[in-house]
Amino acid sequence: MVRLLAVSGSLRQASSNSILLRAAERLCPEGISITHYEGVGELPHFNPDLLEDPPETIMALRSIIGQADGLLFSCPEYARGIPGAFKNMLDWLVSSEEFPGKPVALFNASPRASHAQAALRLVLDTMSARIIEEASITVNLLSSQLSAEGIITDPVMGPLMGTALDAFKRHLDNQNLLGC
Ligand SMILES: Cc1cc2nc3c(=O)[nH]c(=O)nc-3n(C[C@H](O)[C@H](O)[C@H](O)COP(=O)(O)O)c2cc1C
């Protein structure tokens, strides 16, 4: 069983990115478990002064990241960039032991969000994450109002997501076989 941790870059109640991650959970092919990290909006502002004795919420974040075999991110674009709350979470993970080398699949709910996606890739690369291209997908949920059920039963989005999750599992299984 591979354990994925899903994190949405949007704090919005009806977020399309969060719905996309919920759809991934509902679709969840055999051999994958997906849990959601819901604490992005609760984290304190990043301050390097606090790194020596990080707040409890940050220790909990690091622990849950450490327990995941792979991360599933879905992040919107705000003002051509990464939303502040999500970047704040990443800043807390820069100097962590748990994050570097972590496999990441990037889900994206908007084909328009190209600046944020590019910025996110640069940040993740800088943080030594491993972006798994075959598990990274863009779907178009802009103004679609689709529910998680609507996404997984969509004739294009459902199979695209299934293929991406299968590819992520295959990658993680191979990685475990190689012992890295
Ligand atoms: C303050 C603000 C700034 C935004 N800036 C951009 C932008 O630069 N480019 C873009 O494609 N969409 C932009 N959007 C649209 C959001 O990315 C879009 O509404 C997206 O669906 C939000 O993600 P969510 O549904 O997961 O909350 C912006 C939205 C807001 C509220």
Topology:
Elements: E1 2-8, H1 16-27, E2 32-37, H2 56-67, E3 70-74, H3 84-93, E4 103-108, H4 114-126, E5 130-131, E6 137-138, H5 148-153, H6 157-177
Parallel strand pairs: 1-2, 1-3, 3-4, 4-5, 4-6
Can you describe this structure?
With 180 residues, the chain is of the alpha/beta class. The chain is 41% helix and 16% strand. It has a single domain, classed as Flavodoxin domain (Rossmann fold, 3-Layer(aba) Sandwich). The chain is globular. The mean pLDDT is 96.
Structure at a glance:
With 180 residues, this protein is α/β, with parallel strands linked by helices. Helices cover 41% and strands 16% of the residues. The protein is built from 6 helices and 6 strands, in the order βαβαβαβαββαα.
Q: How much helical structure, as a percent, in the residues?
A: 40-55%
Indicate the structural class: alpha/beta
CATH superfamily: Flavodoxin domain
The CATH topology assignment is: Rossmann fold
Intertermini distance: 16 Å
CATH-derived architecture: 3-Layer(aba) Sandwich
Task: Describe the global form.
Answer: globular
The proportion of residues in beta strands is: 15-25%
Tell me the quaternary state.
single chain
- Total of helices: 6
At the first level of CATH, the class is: Alpha Beta
Secondary structure tally: strands: 6
- Main sheet properties: 6 strands, parallel
- In round numbers, the mean pLDDT is 96
Which stretches of 5+ consecutive residues score pLDDT under 50? none
Instruction: Identify the bound ligands.
Output: flavin mononucleotide
